[in-house]
Amino acid sequence: MKIRSVTYFDNPGLPLQENFLTRAEKFQKETLGCFQNSGIELQTVRFASAPFPAYLKDLSSDQVIDYALSLEAQLKEQGFDYLSLGPALPDHPSSYSLIPELIEVTKSTFCSGSMTSPGEGLSLPAVQACGEIIERLTPLDPAGFANLYFAALGNVPAGAPFFPAAYHSGGPPAFAIALEGADLAVNAFAAAPTLATARKQLIRDMEQIGERITEIGRNLEGITGAKYQGIDFSLAPFPMPGLSTGAAFENLGINRFGEHGSLAAAAFLADTIDRASFRRTGFSGLMLPVLEDAVLASRAAEGSLTLKDLLMYSAVCGTGLDTVPLPGDISADQISAVLIDLAALSLRLDKPLTARLMPIPGKKAGDSTDFDFEFFANSQVLGVESSGLGGVLSGNETIDLRPRVK
Length: 406
Fold this sequence. Notes:
With 406 residues, the chain is of the alpha/beta class. The protein has one domain (1-406): Anaerobic Ribonucleotide-triphosphate Reductase Large Chain (Alpha-Beta Barrel). The chain has helices at 18-36, 52-55, 61-77, 99-105, 124-137, 182-190, 195-224, 245-252, 262-275, 294-302, 307-313, 332-348; strands at residues 2-9, 45-48, 82-88, 109-114, 116-117, 121-123, 150-154, 174-180, 227-232, 320-327, 353-360, 398-399. It has a 9-stranded mixed sheet with strand order 9-8-1-2-3-4-7-11-10. The chain has a 3-stranded antiparallel sheet with strand order 5-6-12. A hairpin with a 3-residue loop joins strand 5 (116-117) and strand 6. It starts with a strand and ends in a 7-residue tail after the last strand.
C-alpha cells in the first residue's frame, strides 16, 4: 500500500495571491515532513483549485492560458507534482473548448468537464462538449497520452483527491489523501477459505491503515491549518500482478475477470470497502483502470473484458471508465454516446463516476497497444458499439434525471 497523492485544495486568487503561494509552499513542505518517518510511501503531492470557469470567467482565452502556465510554474517551484484546474461547467459552455489548448501548452496540469449539474440533471451540450474535447486531444500525442490529463465527470462532488477529477469547493484550504491499495485486496483474498473471512481480513487491514493515515492527517491539519477531509480508499492498482484489482477478483474464484460472476465479485469488493470504518472522502469505491492494472489489461487483450462490461460494473462499484484504450479514429459523436450512458448511471444511482477515455492515434479495435510507460500495462484497443447520437438525444436540453425512488 502506498499513498498515490496528498491533494491540497485552495483558491489561488486572481491575480495569483501571495498568501496563497505562502500557504501552498508551507503545506507541501510539511506534508513531506509528516510522511517521511511514517513508513508509508508518499508518491506525489498535488494541488486542485475550484472549477476554473468560476474564478477566471472574466478572462479571455489567452489570459486563462497565461494564468494556468504561471500557476503551474509557481507550484512546480514549490514541489507540487501536478495540478488540477477543475472542471468546465455547463453554466459556462465556452469553458469546454478551452481545455484542449490548456492541456497542450502545460506539462503537469489536469482538467475535467462536468456533464451534470446538481439539482438540474444531465446536460446534453456538456456531454457533446466532452466528446469533442477527447476527439481534439487525441492527435496531440502519437501515443494518445494527452487524454490522460482529462476526464468527463458525472455527479462528482468537490474534494476527491484522485486526478483528473479533483477540484476544490471554493471554501477554506483543505486536503485529502488518495491511496494505491489494490494489494490489500489481493492479499486478503489470496488464501481466504470463505467470503466472510476475506471480507473480515480486508476490513481489518483497511481500518488499521486508515487509523495510521488519519493520525498523520490530523497532525498535518494542526500544523498547516488546512482541513483534513479524509481518505479516498479506492484501492487504486499499479501494473503488476500483486498490485492488481483484477488479481483480487480472480483470487475470489473468477477464472478470468470479465466472465460471468465478475459483477458479483466487484459488488462484493465494493460492499466490503463500504463496510470499513475510516474517514472517507471522494469515491472510496472500486477503481478499474484498464491500462494501469496488469490483469485487467491482459483480460481486455484476451477479449474477456469489454467496454460494456466496464460500464456495467460501474453500476455496482467503481469510479467509472478509466484509462480505456479506444480506436484512434473514433468520432466525438461516438464518444458522446459512451459518455451519456455513464452520466445517466451517475445520476440514477446517485454516485460519482468519471470517464478517462484514451483513443490511440493510428490504432483500431483489436490492435495491440505498445506503450513504453512504467505506469501502463499493454493491452488491446477496445471496440465501441456506437454510431453516435441522433434525434432528441443530440439536442441542447438538460435532462432531469433523478435517483431511483426507494
